[in-house]
Design brief:
Chain B: It holds the Pfam family Fer2. The complex is a heterodimer of chains A (about 325) and B (about 110). Chain A is built from seven helices and 23 strands. Chain A has about 325 residues and is α/β, with parallel strands linked by helices. Chain B is globular and about 35 Å long. The chains are: A alpha/beta (about 325), B alpha+beta (about 110).
Chain lengths: ~325, ~110
């Protein structure tokens, strides 16, 4: 088990800056993120977009801001668990915590800081009745191991890049591959779209345009889906697997069940120190809410600083907090 | 000069709410709905990447053209219809007076 002072959930800009503020106060941090990279949405969604409201930077690319934050926290040697989603929070008798991830990684810590931003990104599910009953029994929202689909009958729904890419790939693996797309054209990467169209002409992919999957059938396990093609009479296709690929949507995820006070999927905090209703657990950045909340990176940075001075009292209960200026004291490596 | 237009929103409960929106503040329909405390998560804040501000346009004059990001998102969205838009991409303009939209379930 990993042991640290503060476990930070979320490696976005605010989570990274929290490492800095904690480091100034000699508190070690471990950072966990569901994405395989640091930076959160700045890295995942808009790395090449400029940000204009970071104090002191008239303009900075989101990706560059993340790089600078990584450099800024280097002296404090944070440790990371990336590509794993935080699932459980176990409170210990002595007031400390064990945070557990989807892959079973455990982190023992005195303080938990949730800097989860939009939440974790999860597959968007189409509105099909009974779809959930077949999850894991023929309905998959992502392709983990392509071999699962070898020599099987597969229907993919969606028109984005991931639907195109997997249709192309799985056409060579599955016995039979149907791609169901609501539109008449594809806006994804033009090469992939062209490839899908030519594979459809050659009969390697069955392509159904202006189509939707409207129903799923089976007995314990999926065996057919109903498709509606261009508003004609719906018909059934025999399948082993149905893979809806409609992109990702941010969800609060398992944090929802931790007993935190929530307001519209945001964590309610006390603005004195951004503490939550669970002592020792703080929430900073876009994931929290309070009267006057603004979802701005700069506000998250401020919240990180106030959180750190409060967390200090938990990590070092016998020491008195003294504000030290970096200009006077420099950065003391941890 | 400030000008107010009216926007009518049919909420998830089927109720119709009339909103007033200023045309000179660069607001989007999503932002106006949020300011009026309608149930619009708009988690991404207006970057056309989460589709949690998805609306179906029921009545309108001329609307701004879709950019690629919005079109791509709508094309991949399972419950989108022919008149679907992302309300975060609809910047309020005088031509929008009388717009009627329906908030979609996911929003």
């Amino acid at each position: 088990m990993l042991t640290t002072d503060i476990c930070i959930v979320g490696a976005g800009p605010v989570g990274l800056f929290a490492v800095f503020e904690a480091g100034l106060l000699k508190m070690r941090c471990h950072v966990i993120d569901a994405l395989p990279i640091v930076g959160g949405q700045l890295s995942e969604i808009y790395p090449k977009k400029p940000i204009y409201d970071i104090p002191g930077f008239p303009e900075v690319l989101a990706g560059d801001l993340v790089k600078n934050l990584e450099k800024q926290i280097e002296p404090f040697h944070p440790t990371f668990t990336l590509g794993e989603r935080v699932e459980h929070l176990h409170k210990q008798d002595d007031g400390s915590f064990i945070v557990e991830t989807s892959e079973g990684t455990k982190v023992a810590c005195k303080v938990v800081v949730i800097a989860g931003g939009l939440g974790s990104f999860e597959p968007r599910k189409p509105a099909i009745e009974n779809l959930e009953t077949f999850e894991g029994k023929g309905v998959n929202y992502m392709v983990r191991d392509p071999e699962t689909f070898r020599s099987k009958k597969v229907v993919i729904a969606g028109g984005g890049d991931s639907a195109l890419d997997w249709a192309i790939f799985l056409a060579g693996v599955a016995e039979d591959l149907t791609l169901v797309h609501r539109g008449t054209s594809f806006r994804g990467a033009p090469e992939s779209a062209q490839k899908v169209l030519s594979m459809a002409e050659e009969g390697q992919i069955k392509l159904l345009l202006k189509s939707n999957v409207t129903d799923v059938h089976g007995n314990g396990k999926l065996n057919a889906v109903t498709v509606l093609v261009d508003n004609a009479t719906p018909y059934n296709i025999e399948v082993d697997y149905f893979i809806p690929l409609f992109g990702l949507v941010p969800k609060l995820g398992p944090i929802d069940a931790w007993g935190l006070e929530l307001d519209k999927s945001a964590i309610v905090v006390n603005t004195v120190d951004y503490s939550t209703n669970i002592p020792g657990v703080y929430a900073i950045g876009d994931i929290n809410t309070y009267p006057g909340k603004l979802k701005l990176i700069l506000c998250g940075f401020h919240e990180a600083a106030l959180m750190a001075q409060s967390a200090y009292n938990i990590v070092y209960p016998d020491k008195k907090f003294v504000l030290k200026y970096t200009t006077v004291n420099g950065i003391q490596e941890l | 000069m400030e000008e107010l237009i009216k926007i009518i929103v049919e909420t998830q409960d089927g109720e119709r709410v009339e909103l007033e929106a200023p045309t000179d503040m660069g607001l989007s329909v999503m932002e106006v709905m949020k300011a009026n405390e309608l149930n619009v998560p708009a988690i991404c804040g207006g970057m056309a990447i989460c589709a949690t501000c998805h609306v179906e346009v029921l009545e309108s004059g001329e609307l701004p053209e879709m950019n690629d990001d919005e079109a791509y998102m709508l094309e991949t969205l399972p419950h989108a219809t022919a008149t679907s838009r992302l309300s975060c991409q609809l910047r309020i303009s005088p031509e929008m007076d009388g717009l009627v939209v329906r908030l979609k379930p996911e929003a």
